[in-house]
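Supplementary Methods S3. Input chains for the assembly prediction are listed below.
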Amino acid sequence: VSGVRSIIAAGCLVFLGVIGAYLVVNTIRQGHDASRQRRSYASLTPDDRAEYVSRAFDVPAAFRRFRATLHRGDRFAVLFAPQESAARLSFYNSFIPYYFYPAIEVGAVSSATYVLVLDPHSASVEGFRPVARIGDATWIGERR
Amino acid sequence: VTETVELVGLNALFLVIGVAVVRLVGLPFRGAWLASALGLSPMVGVVTGSVVAAEVATVGLPIGVITVGITAVALVLAAVVFAPRMQQRLGCMAPQPQTPLGFVAELGLFGVLVYFSVNLIRLLVVTPLNSWDGWAIWAARAHELFVSGDAWNTAFHSPPYYPEHPDYPILYPSLESLSMHAIGRFDVALIHVEPGVYLISAALALWALLRLAIPRWLAALSGVALAGLTPLVQNFSWNYADGAIAVTSALALVCLTIWLISGASPALWLATVFLASEVLIKKEGLMFAAASLAAAAAASRLARRRTRSLLPVTGVVLAVYAPWQVFISANGLRAVDTFRFSPGYLLGHTGRVPQASHALLSNLIHVWTLPSIAGVLAFAAAMLTRRYAVSLFAGVWAALGFAGLVGSYVASTLDLTWQLQTSADRVVGTLAVGIGTLAPLLGWQAWPYARHAFTSLRPRLPRETLTEPRA
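Predicted structure tokens for the full assembly:
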């Protein structure tokens, strides 16, 4: 290996050593950060943690009530107002299966035993009786 | 306290599995080898236990702590019966000699890793699920595996659950569901414990592996550096699987490099374990594993290793992946797939190549800056000092991995700009961590020649470079 090659390679390795040393310091800093960050989460109650996503995305309180109604294996559907934004519906597409599990979301109301209705124009859904009303436009229905 | 004991118990079972597998692949548990064998055991145990759980869930059997227990007993029996009879070739792989100063450095670095690990786990046990894919995909699927026990439940193949990507392999949610089985409930904070254990075990495993090829203090430095890599820590604390695939893939690469350097068969079998795990973590795992094997095959002749030694490795990896592929076909989950690999589609979307390449490179530079620079510097040093075998391996893997990632964006049916914005920074992590973890090995290969620049001494070849062309 020629002298020039050796010198350039040595330069690379010196720089590599500096990066390695920096990364070790960074690991210590990550430990500090983790310790500091813990303080912001440690004060959360189990309920705060369980509802963290729903609060972050400002999910209506009706969701929480509906979750308390459902049991494992219950089949449900959620009806939204037609004017609900596409971005919001996209969020709900991911959130609903996560939030209500182990109750099972079904695509169609015809397959559901429970419905959560968030549509002010749907005062009733055929085959379902209201079991809880949450505000004027939102209600929970159970199959008759 | 009870839940802590239960989680520690689960990880103790993983450790037993790891010890058995490490013994089976032929690493000695004695003398200077002991630290490396024990250091590798937690990670090998976690991935082996998770692979078994994922396979069991895929074929429709319920998973739980009992699955891990049975696996542990079976592997310990196998290790007791078969390990003494197996003849493994260690080649020139051996724990590197230790100087007193190196010992002090290694001890200090161990202290850093302990400090980091304690703080990380203490943080993770109180962290709620707070990042989209973390709750929407991985936690949701882990919860479903916990409740139903296997992958054949409604949530894994019905259309309302398609946003959870039911076509993604299930090693990561299987691991998390095991921790839920251990404590008996789904917990949005304690779900992060196993991701934390995964990262710490991977750092320890990297340290343990590198000890067999480079000075111990340098191996320790590499392991500690990996543990605290900022985007990696974020990925694990957000409950993303991208961090898991990155470190698993990196460990497989390190094993293959050690095999190329030393010809040690335990390194090849350990690579098999990591590659087999990698393909069940995320879809791109198969691509990265194929890139690793292709790169090892390309470099094997130059390193004077038998290319056909890679055939059983490939066979095991494919056999581990096959049940998941069958599951996807049986449940019609190809419909969920957002990729089209037909030649017509790919040719029609080649215009995506520049944008995808630019975004991936940009994320390598701006998000994964230091591991990327470290990898490039070490590659340059190895090339300049004519360490061609290991350079070729690293270069081919990185090139194939990068091309594969670009190809996946070309084949995607989703909006490219949106997809790059939401995923490029994470998927490119496997490339960055891979080349970053190879840096100490490449650098140490180059060192005997590069140090010529500092001293006028004739370069002295370390044992593991004897198969390389002389300078």
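Chain B is about 70% helix and 0% strand. The first helix of chain B runs from residue 2 to 25.
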